[in-house]
Design a protein that fits this description.
The chain has 365 residues and is an alpha/beta fold. It has a single domain, classed as Alpha-Beta Barrel (TIM Barrel). Helix content is 45%, strand content 13%. It has a four-stranded mixed β-sheet, with helices on one face. A three-stranded parallel β-sheet has the order 2-3-4, with helices on one face. Helix 2 packs across helix 10 and helix 10 runs parallel beside helix 12. The longest helix is centred in the middle third of the chain and has 18 residues. About 3% of the residues have low confidence.
């Protein structure tokens, strides 16, 4: 049907034909005013590439510490260590929470934390070992590329050595956090004390080369311009061509409450739902053929907007997000169940399925 429409966008023509989109194509689409047409083309691409199944994982989110040497302007989660609510969990405490996660039905544990200046590499290895020893069937998805890069600098070990030791200890995969936006012109306004965009890409490339697959993310809706979004997507696409190591792409909507950007009035409101849907559709079309899983993070969008995003190119809801703390720190409710997510998908006429970390289907509903 779409092929029969009279179109006024060369970029949409290329997207419908399945051609790879250029930077200029991306700029055309992010500024394209007909959101319904853009969403329809993205939805058509989604159907061709992955069908009508919408997936999600039973995932337990755990933050081992909120103490962080960085002080990013877009983060409401970090503490410097002397506040009353600063914490660091022991490996034994972490294992106890993982045991609870397994009772809740989780098939993966998503573990990230701040850049703690006093934790040794042994701490991270012990964390992996105790989880893997007691819960060998759970996928350990832990440590962003930004954490790995920081740990390399802190311990004076190479990134490769850090990754090899953690993999030997039990690390199965990595989340996609810390990417934020790669372009230095915007990164300097939202990141302080964290790796550069290129350092993130170089670190995750090494992980992929060692057989550690990962997710990829992009934090948008703050001080960026359209060209920064397109630049980010193309850099991810080019790395995926080299490694095929990304599992899914997760656009992350910036949450304003309690952040430095809000306090300094650099950002006064969160981006519109229209922009959210554009980003989902654009992600589908820019990454098509290379990174075909586009995840809709319902924690950031809310469940109703997430349903609309699934009709604009998304094919995954990430997961249940048991115990998610980072968005909670910015005022977002974060808990859901497998059945709730399945019902969200059924309500929009698509087919829900629970998956594992690597998008293997575990059960359909």
């Amino acid at each position: 049907m779409l092929e029969k429409l009279v179109r006024e966008s060369q970029a949409l023509d290329k997207a419908i034909a399945g051609d790879e989109l250029s930077f200029d194509d991306g700029m055309e689409l992010i500024n394209y005013e007909n959101l319904h047409m853009l969403g329809a083309v993205a939805n058509n691409a989604r159907q061709k590439l992955v069908g009508n199944t919408v997936t999600f994982a039973a995932s337990y989110y755990m933050n081992y510490t909120n103490v962080c040497a960085a002080s990013c302007q877009m983060c409401a989660f970090y503490r410097k260590g002397d506040e009353d609510d600063a914490y660091t969990l022991s490996p034994e405490q972490i294992e106890q929470r993982v045991a609870l996660a397994k009772q809740m039905g989780a098939t993966e544990v998503h573990i990230v934390g701040g850049f703690h200046p006093k934790l040794t590499l042994d701490y991270y290895e012990d964390m992996m070992k105790i989880i893997k020893k007691n819960h060998p069937e759970l996928n350990i998805k832990a440590f962003t590329a930004a954490e790995i890069f920081y740990l390399s600098k802190l311990t004076k070990n190479s990134v490769k050595e850090i990754l090899l030791r953690l993999k030997e200890a039990g690390l199965d995969s990595m989340p996609g956090g810390g990417a934020e936006l790669f372009h230095p012109d915007v990164r300097k306004f939202i990141v302080r004390g964290k790796c550069s965009g290129q350092e993130w890409l170089d670190t995750i490339e090494q992980a992929h080369n060692l057989g550690i697959k990962s997710n990829a993310t992009m934090l948008y809706g703050h001080v960026e311009k359209p060209e920064h979004v397109i630049d980010h997507l193309i850099k991810l696409r080019e790395l995926q061509k080299k490694t095929q190591g990304f599992i899914t792409f997760i656009p992350l909507k910036f949450s304003l409450d309690n952040t430095e950007l809000e306090k300094e009035k650099l950002v006064t409101h969160e981006c519109s739902s229209i922009y959210d849907l554009k980003v989902i559709a654009l992600s589908r079309l820019m990454l098509a053929g290379q990174l075909n899983n586009i995840s809709v993070y319902w924690v950031a969008y809310g469940k109703k907007l997430a349903q609309v995003a699934l009709a604009n190119g998304g094919n995954d809801l990430v997961g249940t997000a048991f115990s998610e703390e980072i968005y909670r720190a910015a005022g977002k409710p974060t808990n859901s169940s497998v059945l709730e997510l399945a019902n969200m998908v059924k309500e929009i006429g698509q087919s829900p399925a629970q998956r594992d970390t690597f998008f293997n289907i575990l059960q359909r509903f």
